[in-house]
Amino acid sequence: MSHTPLNVLFLCTHNSARSILSEALLNHLGQGRFKAYSAGSHPRENQQPHPLALQALTLTGLSTEGLYSKSWDVFALPGAPNMDLVITVCDNAAGEACPFWPGQPATAHWGYADPSAQEGNAEQKRQAFVQTLHQIRHRVELLVSLPPNQLDRLTLQQIAREWAQNPA
């Protein structure tokens, strides 16, 4: 395997919670073998990462530097990095027609409940983000532990899809 990192794009509808958490985790745990990005199919105007997502990352020692909400359209533009793996992390984005991704990346769906939909007091809402972060961490740790010979497109797609069948 070359020293070029594997590009992974995490998609969600608004790109404010699950995809942001996934991007930060993979960039932290990937140790340069992976470069994570995130985007949304329909980010709201002036959408920003959810404050509780940023808080959950900070509380676990993960950097929030450079995280911002954006449309998946930016990754279909000329000059955008080619993705090796595209993972949807919410059921809404999984059911949408995605843009054409240059290079035909591997794809998978890792669904997680939306922590921003949690009802209750402030602590219950905060805990929903922490719990989602831990669930995402499980699959991201599996991904970064793969040996280089399992990072080709077809093997990666098969493995990533198998993990979707075994939720964290």
List the helices and strands and how they pair.
Layout: E1 6-12, H1 18-29, E2 34-40, H2 51-59, E3 85-88, H3 91-94, E4 106-109, H4 122-144, H5 153-165
Parallel strand pairs: 1-2, 1-3, 3-4
Helix pairs in contact: 1-4, 2-4
Overview of the molecule:
It is a single chain. The protein has 168 residues and is α/β, with parallel strands linked by helices. It has a single domain (6-154), classed as Rossmann fold, CATH 3.40.50. It is built from five helices and four strands, in the order E-H-E-H-E-H-E-H-H. Helix 1 crosses helix 4 (122-144). It is globular and about 45 Å long.
Core attributes:
globular; Rossmann fold; alpha/beta; single chain; 5 helices; four-stranded parallel β-sheet; 168 residues
Q: What is the C-alpha radius of gyration, as a whole number of Å?
A: 15 Å
Number of strands: 4
| Overall body shape | globular
CATH superfamily: Response regulator
Number of domains: 1
H/E order of the elements?
Answer: EHEHEHEHH
CATH architecture: 3-Layer(aba) Sandwich
* Helical content band: 25-40%
The total count of helices amounts to 5
Structural class: alpha/beta
Strand order in the largest sheet? 2-1-3-4
CATH class: Alpha Beta
- What about the largest sheet? 4 strands, parallel
CATH topology: Rossmann fold
Task: State the gist of this model.
The protein is of the alpha/beta class.
